[in-house]
Amino acid sequence: MRALLLSVLLAAPAGAQVTMAQYQAGTAGAPPTAPDPQIQGWTLTDPSNGAVVLTDLSPDGATGLNAWVVDDQVTFGGARAHYGQVFSQGDLDQATDWGWEMAADLRLVQSSGLCVVLDFATGTSSANDRYLLWLEVQGSDVLASNHLTGVSFVCPGAMNGAYHNFALRKPAGVANPVAEFLFDGVALGPWPNSQSSGSAPAGGMNWGSGSSGGTAIANWNQVTFRKGTDVIQLGSTYCFPAAVNSTGQSGHIQAFGNPLAQADLVSLLALQIPANEFGYFVLGDAQTFIPLPGGSQGNLCVSGNLGRFVSQAASTGPTGSLEISVNTSALPTWRRSPLLPGQTWNFHAWFTDNNPGPTSNFTDAVSVTFF
Fold first, then answer.
1. What is the pTM for the complete model shown?
2. CATH number of the domain bearing residue 194
């Protein structure tokens, strides 16, 4: 049951992610020309003093896509130019805790050596993490590499004239510093972090031409950095263990999803409860402990602004479990208010039981703070 729930959550749409930075060149005619990245919040760093050509290509041939071209075919020292954004410390901390994804849709035209780059770092000190991604032509393929860690992957057929997606994705949690590399949405393998340095982004990301030692032409259609890529187990359990029910076990609740309030991705799962009974989830913005409420054999542990998910009431079925997806835009409280950043909600499951006669019981409870 838990595996089924997680598989459903992991297939959730990109609303589980929050965009921290984006460049979007658009499609043919929409807009008529690809906008300068600086208009969309990116800062240009150009040690080449204009020698690197930065211009729009609208559209890019038969691809139907607009592009922002970074044409670096000069070889003298300092001949590079890139766009960057610096993120707040709060955003950096959240990206580390909840996972992140850095991705680009681009068409590599030509390259010689290391030049085309995507680069993210949490800072410039040796204690910070850096995730450096170089892209270069390798025959009919593209080689993705990081010379700081020695990792590399071949992206087969990426020089076929079409746009392709190149991405790094890090899972949630400070204890999970290793990202993974994805080509057109397919994970090819792990991408270790490296120790940062003064040449890294100062707590943010860069893209474009990143080295004066190589040359390249790359057409960029879209660049994104998003936080909150992962579905994780949420919150902390309290009122544990719950009163024993007729299974001989204590009912247990778990919350899964994304701690970002605007992600609209929260599911509740109740386990170790009697089979083929009736139940639903309840929530409140405060905690309490009321033993045997209304003749129940369990303990009520939520209070304050209360709500009941009665419209999602269901049988516990043969597995003795309940699960729902929470509509976070309209919680079942008074006036059906939305879930907002900074709120803490406590969840509980109530269910009928025969122990030995007709009665009811509760699981333990879980408290989740949203951001």
1. 0.73
2. 2.60.120.200
